[in-house]
Design a protein that fits this description.
Helices cover 38% and strands 25% of the residues. Strands 3-2-1-6-5-4 form a six-stranded antiparallel sheet, sandwiched between helices. The chain has a single domain, classed as Beta-Lactamase. The chain has 167 residues and is an alpha+beta fold. GO terms for molecular function: L-methionine-(R)-S-oxide reductase activity.
Length: 167
């Protein structure tokens, strides 16, 4: 059982460290990938402020397919190279987009989204998917969020066999 006592008194960086500790605890005590990824998106949703979507897309048959998430219903499939998520896969690159409406080919699943951060999930040099977080605020994501989300994804890669998810 998760208890988030005292989280409102934490600094932003303390919350992000706590987020990764929660994830580590979840991953080390549960082996089911779907359960872990579902809780991973819930952990982000609880810890981050000013976001409207947090979740995963995974590679299946050469395209990204929606995975566990928190937020409004989202696009089911994204072609590699399209939008921020597809670009992150195609370029094996993190994207921190201050204004999604200025990103060429942005895919608007939720018209309230204004900024986005996408971290590719890479295991053994293969991109298996992305962690995608949207915000209704411009320039919501900073180097601080990027730093802790990179660690978040590294923890996922350490505990989850993404080959199994991308079948």
């Amino acid at each position: 059982m998760f208890k988030l006592n005292g989280i409102e008194k934490m600094t932003i960086e303390q919350k992000y460290r706590y987020m990764n500790n929660l994830l580590q605890s979840q991953l080390s005590s549960e082996k089911d990938a779907l359960a872990n990824l579902s809780n991973a998106s819930a952990i982000i949703n609880v810890i981050f402020h000013d976001i409207n979507w947090a979740g995963f897309y995974f590679m299946r048959n050469e395209e990204l397919v929606l995975g566990p998430f928190q937020g409004l219903p989202a696009c089911n499939r994204i072609k590699v190279g399209n939008g921020v998520c597809g670009s992150a896969v195609a370029n094996k690159k993190i994207y921190r987009v201050e204004n999604v409406h200025e990103f060429p080919g942005h895919i608007a699943c939720d018209c309230a989204s204004k900024s986005e951060i996408v971290i590719p999930i890479i295991q053994n040099d293969v991109v298996y998917g992305v962690l995608d977080i949207d915000s209704p605020k411009l320039s919501r994501f900073t180097e601080l969020e990027e730093k802790y989300l990179i660690k978040f994804v590294e923890l996922l890669v350490e505990y989850i066999d993404f080959k199994e998810i991308s079948k």
